[in-house]
Amino acid sequence: MTDGITVKITAAPGLTLPSYQTPGSSGADVRASIDTVIPPRGWAAVPTGLFCEMPDGWEIQVRSRSGLALKEGIFVLNSPGTVDSDYRGEIKVILANLSDKEFVVKAGDRIAQLVLAKVERASFTRADRLSGTDRGDGGFGHTGT
Question: Averaging pLDDT over each range in 2-6, 38-42, 140-144, which range is the top one?
Answer without folding.
Answer: 38-42
